[in-house]
Amino acid sequence: MGRLAGSAPAYILVGIRRRDCAGNGLPGGVPVFPPGFDLETERARRVDAGQAETFGESDLYPDARPAMAALRDMGVWVGVAGNQTSRAGGILRELDLPADMIATSDDWKAAKPDASFFRVVIDSVPCDASGIVYVGDRVDNDLKPAKDAGMWTAFIRRGPWGYIWERHPDMPVAADWRMTTLTELPEIVASVNRSAR
Question: Are 121 and 171 in contact (CB under 8 A)?
Fold first, then answer.
């Protein structure tokens, strides 16, 4: 395995924000939506009702900021990208996270798992696909399409999806690394880059 990318490998991190999964739905809090449910319409209705999407520092996973800061201290280019609204991207940018880029599927008009999302990721970072480690909690939505695009992949077991997917039979092929916390990522990066010397 070679060095991930020049002197400043790029990493795309997902799973930095906790999601509210409480309420009606499947075991584990995964919501069930009625037939005909339209997410964009419901988001607009929430805004009209004065209940627009919002979150803050306390909604971040506690390992997100330290892991991102550690990567930046190592000279690593850090990006955050995921299937979120433009509003969520704006909120994340206002939190002044240690990231070189924060982008959402709404910003890019491309959503995971479509290959177009991963092409935009590659076009947005200062290296080619082989210099990117894409961190995700799903085989179908994150790891397989990132790997198909030529990226390295790290599975993070977090939230309901992480526990649902951790034993999936495709995991050994889909994930180059497995983590339970983002604070493991800086050592993974350091180890790969040391071995490439």
Answer: no
The answer to whether the beta carbons of residues 157 and 182 sit under 8 Å apart is no
Name the pTM for this structure. Answer: 0.82
pLDDT above 90: residue 8: no
For position 166, which CATH number holds?
3.40.50.1000
Between CA 59 and CA 159 the distance in angstroms is 13
**Dihedrals phi, psi of 102, to nearest 5 degrees:** -130, 125
User: Rounded to the nearest 5°, which phi and psi values hold at 135?
Assistant: -100, 130
**Cα–Cα distance measured from residue 82 to residue 107, given in angstroms and rounded to the nearest whole number:** 10
Please report which confidence band the pLDDT of residue 3 belongs to, taking 50, 70 and 90 as the band edges: very low
**Structural domain of residue 44, as residue ranges?**
10-195
Q: Are 81 and 104 in contact (CB under 8 A)?
A: yes
